[in-house]
Design a protein that fits this description.
Blueprint (H helix, E strand, L loop, with lengths): L7 E3 L13 H9 L9 E7 L2 E4 L8 H9 L3 E4 L7 H14 L4 E7 L14 E16 L26 E6 L3 E4 L4 E5 L6 E8 L5 H19 L11 H4 L10 H16 L6 H15 L7 H5 L8 E3 L2 E3 L10 E4 L5 E6 L2 E6 L13 E5 L4 H10 L4 E2 L8 H13 L3 E3 L5
Antiparallel strand pairs: 1-8, 2-3, 2-4, 4-5, 5-10, 6-7, 6-8, 6-9, 6-10, 11-12, 13-17, 13-18, 14-15, 15-16
Length: 419
C-alpha cells in the first residue's frame, strides 16, 4: 500500500553511473551565462547551531559572488537545472511521462563539513542522486498520522523534534536514496569531501484528495441543476436541534436530518463528472510539463527545422506547403489534451512551454468541435504516420487547415521534411 512505503537506498558501486547528468562544471557554466538570478534560480543557504538562513542578495548570481559564498561555507541550491542543462531537461521529460505528474529537480552543492538545510519533510516523492563527492543522510519516519503523505511541506524542524533515524547512511557518488512524502530528512557533508546531488521530485498534489477537490464541487453543481431534491429548503427549526451543542441530543429530527445529508452525499456519485475532472487534472499537468526534447530528425521534420530564413534582402522558404498527401503524426502522444469547457473545445499542449516551471501561462488552442474527431484520430494513430487526406474533416480545405495549424504549433511532425 502506498502509505506503507519506506525509504530506499540503492548502492551503484560505480561513481560514473550519473556521469553527464549534471556537474559542478555545469553549475559554473550556468553562472557564467549571466542568466542565473538569486532567489529565482539560485538560493544561498546555511544551517548552523540549529538555525537555517538564506543569504540571497538581489540581482544576478555572478560567479565571483556565488563562489565567495561557497568558499565561506554556504550551500548553493540551483532551483531549475533543467533550464540550464539539456541533459537534466531530457531526464525530467522522460520521468514526467512515466509518472503522469510533474517531475522537477533542484541541485545542491554543499562545502565539506557543512549543512545547508534544517531537517524537514516535503510534499513530494524525492529521489536523491549523488553526482559528486559524498553526503551523510539521516531519514526519520513521519511522527504522526497527519504527517503521512502530507499535503504541504513542513517548516524547519529542530533536532529535538526528530527522535531516532530509521535510515542513516553516507551516499557515495553514483548512489541513490528515495524517501516518500512526509519522511523527515537532513543531509550534511563530511569534513573530507564536498557534495553535489540532484533531488528529483514528483507526485506533488497528485492524490485522490486533490482529484476530489475538483470533482465534488462540479458534481454538486450538476446535482443542483438537474435534481430538485438538492434545491429543496432545509427543515424549519433545524438550527435549534442541529449543531455541535446539540450533537449529544437524542432527537428523531436529528437522525432524519443526518440521514438526509448522507443520502444526498451518496447521490452525488451519480452526478460526478469523473472523466471531465480528470481532463482538468490533465490540463494542469500539461501546464506543469517541460516542453518535449527533440531529436535531430524530429527537428528536421517539424516547424523547428523549417527552412524559413532571411536571404537576399528578404524572407524566403516561408510557406508551409502541407497537402492532402503529406504524412503526419503527433510529435509525442502525451503533449496534447482535448477538454470540453464552457467556452468551447480547448486543445491544451506543451510544445511552447518554458523550461522554467510555470514561467508562462498554460498554452491552448480553441478548436472547432468539428475537428475533435481528427484530434482523436491522430492520438489513436500514434506513433504511425497518416496522410492528411485521412483526417475525418468535412472538406479537404479543413484537413489541410487543421494539419497546418498543428504543425505551426510544433504539435505535428511530417514523415519527410517540408523543404
Amino acid at each position: 500500500r502506498h502509505w506503507e512505503r519506506a525509504p530506499l537506498l540503492v548502492r551503484r558501486g560505480d561513481p560514473r553511473y550519473y556521469a553527464g547528468l549534471f556537474s559542478t562544471a555545469d553549475l559554473d557554466a550556468a553562472l557564467r551565462s549571466g542568466e542565473v538570478c538569486f532567489g529565482t534560480h539560485l538560493d544561498v543557504t546555511s544551517y548552523a547551531d540549529g538555525v537555517r538562513e538564506t543569504h540571497n542578495p538581489s540581482g544576478r548570481a555572478l560567479p565571483a559572488v556565488v563562489w565567495d559564498f561557497y568558499q565561506n561555507g554556504c550551500s548553493l541550491r540551483l532551483l531549475c537545472p533543467q533550464a540550464f542543462s539539456p541533459t537534466v531537461w531530457q531526464f525530467l521529460s522522460i520521468l514526467q511521462e512515466h509518472f503522469g505528474s510533474m517531475a522537477g529537480a533542484n541541485t545542491y552543492l554543499t562545502p565539506p563539513g557543512t549543512q545547508g538545510f534544517a531537517p524537514h519533510y516535503d510534499d513530494i516523492e524525492a529521489f536523491v542522486l549523488q553526482l559528486e563527492g559524498k553526503k551523510h543522510w539521516r531519514v526519520y519516519s513521519p511522527r504522526t498520522d497527519a504527517e503521512v503523505l502530507p499535503q504541504f511541506s513542513s517548516a524547519n524542524l529542530t533536532q529535538a523534534e526528530l527522535g531516532e533515524p530509521i535510515l542513516e547512511t553516507v551516499l557515495e557518488t553514483g548512489d541513490l536514496l528515495y524517501f516518500p512524502r512526509g519522511f523527515i530528512h537532513q543531509g550534511n557533508c563530511l569534513p573530507d569531501a564536498h557534495s553535489l546531488h540532484i533531488t528529483v521530485s514528483t507526485y506533488q498534489r497528485n492524490s485522490w484528495g486533490n482529484l476530489l477537490e475538483k470533482l465534488l464541487p462540479a458534481a454538486l453543481q450538476m446535482a443542483l441543476e438537474e435534481d430538485v431534491e438538492y434545491r429543496q429548503g432545509l427543515p424549519l427549526g433545524c438550527l435549534q436541534y442541529m449543531g455541535v451543542t446539540n450533537s449529544d441530543t437524542v432527537d428523531a429530527r436529528r437522525t432524519a436530518f443526518v440521514d438526509k445529508v448522507q443520502s444526498l452525499i451518496k447521490k452525488l456519485v451519480d452526478y460526478a463528472p469523473i472523466d471531465a475532472a480528470m481532463d482538468q487534472r490533465a490540463k494542469s499537468f500539461l501546464h506543469d510539463c517541460l516542453p518535449p526534447v527533440l531529436t535531430q530528425s524530429e527537428k528536421a521534420q517539424s516547424v523547428y527545422g523549417f527552412p524559413a530564413r532571411w536571404k537576399g534582402g528578404g524572407p524566403c522558404d516561408v510557406d508551409i506547403l502541407i497537402t492532402t498527401d503529406t504524412e503526419i503524426r503527433l510529435l509525442r502522444h502525451g503533449i496534447i489534451r482535448l477538454c470540453n469547457e464552457e467556452a468551447g473545445v480547448m486543445l491544451y499542449y506543451t510544445t511552447e512551454n518554458s523550461r522554467v516551471y510555470h514561467k508562462e501561462e498554460c498554452k491552448f488552442l480553441e478548436i472547432d468541435p468539428e475537428y475533435t474527431d481528427s484530434i482523436e484520430y491522430l492520438l489513436s494513430s500514434y506513433p504511425n504516420h497518416v496522410s492528411v487526406s485521412t483526417l475525418p474533416c468535412e472538406t479537404l480545405e479543413d484537413k489541410i487547415a487543421l494539419a497546418t495549424l498543428l504543425f505551426e504549433k510544433g504539435i505535428l511532425t511530417t514523415k519527410k521534411p517540408l523543404i
